[in-house]
## 1
Amino acid sequence: MGGIPVVSGNTSVERVTIEHVTIRSGKTFAAVRTALEALVPRLDDGFSTLLRFGLADRARQELEAAATLSIFGSRDHGVLLAIAGLKQQAIQYDIGNPLTASLMTRHKISAALYAPIRVLLLESPEGGVAFEYDRPVSTFGQFGDERVNIVARELDENLENVLQKAANSFD
C-alpha cells in the first residue's frame, strides 16, 4: 500500500493511500447524533484502573463483556467555526474498542496512531447530514501486517454497520 520512502537524515516519509468514507443521512443532525450516542455507549475506563493495579485478567474480562464499540471522547468542531464567523454543526468522535486496539498494537505499536478511529458527524451548509471517516482497513493496512489487517477488517465492518444504523434508523 505504501509509496516510495523518502529518507533524509533521521526522518523518513512514506506515502500511503487512505480510503475516505461518507455515509449520508436524510435525518436531522440532532436525530443522527442521538441515534449514534444510543447505539455506541461512552467508554467505561474502569479497565484502565484495573491495569494500573496489575489486574490485567480482570481488565480483559471487563473489556470482553463491554460493547463492541465505544465512544472514547468527542469534540464540537462546529463551535470552533464561530472563530471564522461561521455556523455549522460538526462533532468529531473517537470510536473504538480498547481490546481491539490491543489486538493490533501488540503486532505493530504504530497502529496506536489510528486507534480509536476518528469519525466526524457533520451538517453541511446546505443542510445535509453525514458521517465521514477513514476506513480502518486502509489506515491500518499501511503497516503491512496481516494480523493487524484481520482485526482492522472486523473493525471496519463493525464501524460501518453502526454508522449506517445511526444514519438510517427511524425515530
Note: The first strand starts at residue 6 and ends at 8.
## 2
Amino acid sequence: MRIEQVGPADAARIQACYEVYAAALRVDAPGDTGRTERRFGDWMADGGSGDPREAWAVSGQDESSVAGWYRLELPDKENLDRAYLDLTVLPAARRHGIGRALLRHAAERTAAHGRSLLGGFAQQGSPGQALARAVGATAGLADIRRVLELGPPTAEKLPGLREEAGRAAVGYSLVSWTGPVPEELIDQVAALYNALSDAPHDADSAPEVWDAQRIRERVNANRGRHGTLHYSVAAQHDTSAELAALTVVMVDPADPGWGHQMVTAVIRKHRGHRLGLLVKIAMMDLLTTAEPRVERIATWNSESNQHMIAINEALGYTILGQPYIIYRVSATSLLG
C-alpha cells in the first residue's frame, strides 16, 4: 500500500479525494451536502485557517483514483503539541486496512513534526468512531449539527422573538457588513473572537488568542475566496460604541440554498441582553434580501453549550445527523 502526498497544486489528485469524500458522505451522513467541490479543493490546498497542513492519499484500483486520504493540520500558534486529523476511506474500499494504514502514517507525520497528540472528529456510529475506539483514543466533547429551515413556520416565529430581543437589547444598535472586517472595527472583532474562548472546549486544549493582525491574516485574507460570501451582523453598545455581539454566515454560490453559520459571539460584560438572539434574527432578515435563494442555515454547537442551543432551538433549529465526537490519542501509542 503506497501512501503519497497530495500537493496543493495537484488538482487531479484533490479531485479524486473529493470523489471519496462525496461517496463517504452519501453513506455516512445522508442528507448532509457537506463542502462543495470548490470549497473542498480550497480546504485541501491551503485550509483557510492559516495553519500549516498536509494531505496524503492511497491510490485506488488505478493510479488516477483514490481509495482513502487524510489531511493533517498543524496549529502554529496554540496547541503546538498536537495535530488535527481528517481521514476518509472510500466506502467500497473499507475493511481492507486502509484506514489503519492511513492513521499510522498520520501518527508518523505527527511525530515527525514534533507533536505528541493526534486529534480529530468521528461521527457517532461511524467506521471512524470504531477505528478511534479500536486504537484506544479518548473521547472528548461532542458537536451537534442543527439546521434551520427558512420557511413559513420560521417566519411566523420571528416577530415575537424580534420583539423579545428588542426589549432586552435597549441601548444597542445593529451594524452589518459583507466580506472582510472593516479596518476600523478590526480590534473590536478580535475581542469578539476572543470571547469564544469561554465556550465549551476540551480542558487540555488551549483556546485561540486573537488580535487585529490575526484577523487580517486568518479571517480577512480568506473572505471571498473562490466566490464565497460572508455576511456579518453585530450589535453595538450605543453609549460606548463597543461591538458587543457578532454573528457571521457564509454562503457558497455553488450551493446557494445553504447558509453556513461561522461565528456567533457575545462579549461577557454585555451578556444578558438577548444579543445573540438579536443578531441572529437580524442576520435572517439580511439574508432574505441579500441571498433570497438561501433555504436553510446550518450551525454546529458543542453538546454542552446549552445557552446557544437554547437560542437556536427558539429560532427553530433541529438536529441533523449524529453527533461528531472529538477523539485524541498519543501518536507514539499508534507507532508501538
Note: The two ends are 19 Å apart (CA to CA).
## 3
Amino acid sequence: MIASLVRIPLSRQEDERGWFCELRRDSMLPKPMPQTNVSFSRAGVIRGLHFHERGQDDLFACLRGTARVVILDRTSGETFVEDIGDENPVAIYVPGTCAHGFEAITDILFCYHVTREYDRADPDEQTVPWNDPRVVHLWSSSTPILFERDAGVAS
C-alpha cells in the first residue's frame, strides 16, 4: 500500500431510525484536520486528480452512494483504488503529495476533511490528468463528466 495512506473501516450503529457513524477522531490521524468540505456529484463525475506540494492531506468519506477513490503515488507510480460508501463504509486518509481523486459511481454525497485550510489567494492544488496512463484503467468510465481543469489530456 502507498506509504502514509491509511484505510479506516467505519463502524455504523444501525436501528430502525437509520445509522450513526463516527467519521473522524483527530487523535487517531497523522495530522489534525481544521477544515471539512462536502460535495454532491452526479453519477459519472470524476473530480481530480489533484495533489498538494505543501502537504495538505485529505480524509475522504462517501456519506451516501458509492464513490471510487483513486490515488497515485507520483514518485513510485504505485496506485490505490477502492469503492467506498453505502456498501463499504470506509474512510481513506490520503497523503497530499499523492495525486488523488474520486468518481461518482452513483449520485454521491462526499465529505473530505483537510489538514490545511484552503487559501484562495495562494492555492496549493496541482493536477494530474484523470486519463494519465498510470490510472486511466482504474476509473469505471472512459467518458466521465469533468470540470474544465480536470479535463487535461495526458501526454
Note: The chain is about 0% helix and 45% strand.
## 4
Amino acid sequence: MCTPAAPDFIRYLAAKKALDDRSLNWQVWDHLVEALRDRPESSPLRVLEVGCGIGTMVERLLDQGLLTRAAYTGIDVEPGCIRAAVQRLHGYAAGRQVPLTVDAAGSMLFTSPTQEVRITFAAADLFDFLGREAGEAAWDLLVAHAVLDLINLAAGLPRLLSRLAPGGLFYFSLNFDGATIFEPSIDPDLDALIEALYHGSMDTRRSRGRPSGSSRTGRRLFGSLKEAGARLIAAGSSDWVVFPGPDGYPGDEAFFLHFIIDTIGRALHGHPELAGSGFPAWIAQRHLQIEARELIYIAHQLDFLGYI
C-alpha cells in the first residue's frame, strides 16, 4: 500500500521488489499454485489486490504463471502509485515483447501465447471501495501484500473476506509481526527502547479517527481469520533479511535501508521518552553503518493462504 507518493517512496517500493521476492514464504506460495491449479477454468480467475502499490505483485503473479485467463483489479489509495503501476506494467510488457492494449475503460489486456489477462488499476480508498461493492461476492482470489498491518483487522478483515465468492481464496503476504532488528548494536538499551517505541507508534496509528494497524498483525491474523469464518490452508514466515555481501547491498537495497531508518526517525521525532537519549545521533549512526556496508536489518513477517 502506498502512502503519499513522493518519488522516494515510489523508489522504496521498487527497491524492495527483489527483497520481497526472496522473503516470501514459498511453501505458502506453492499451496497457492496448487489451489489455483485445481480450480475449474470455465471462466477467468477474478483477482482483487488491495493496496497494490506500484503493481509489483501482479508482475510476480504473471512471472510465476498464476494468471493465465484472469481479470485482475488492483486498488490503492494513492493516485501517484497507480500512475507508477500503469507505467511499470507498460515497461514490463515491453520488456517481454508482449502486446499490451488499452480499452476505452482504461483496462489493459496482457496477451501472450499462454496468457490472456485483463488488468485494471484504480485509485480508491479501501473502505470506500468496499462500500461501493457492498453485497457483491465477485472475487475468486483476494490478495493483500504488506498491507494488512496498516488496517484495523476487526473492522476490515470480515468486510474484505465477504467479497470472495464461495470457495474463494485469500493470499495475505508480508504481514509484520513484532520484530525489528538492527545489527550491529549501538547501545542495547537504547536499541530496545527505540524498537519498542517504533512498534508502539504502529499500535496507536489512526486513520479517519479509527485505529489503523498493529505491530503484531501476523500472529493476530490466526485468530482474526478464524473469527471471520475463514479456513487456513498454509502459513509461514516471510522475514525481510537485508545484509551486505562482498559487493555491498544488492540492487537498490542500500536506499531501502536509508528509507527504513528515516521512517523510524519521522515516527519517533520529538518522542518524550527519547528526550536526551541521543536519538538523533542513533539515526545518524545507522545511516553511516549503511554507507559503510555494515548494517544488517531483519523484520519478522508472516504469509497466509486460505479460503472462505
Note: The first helix runs from residue 7 to 15.
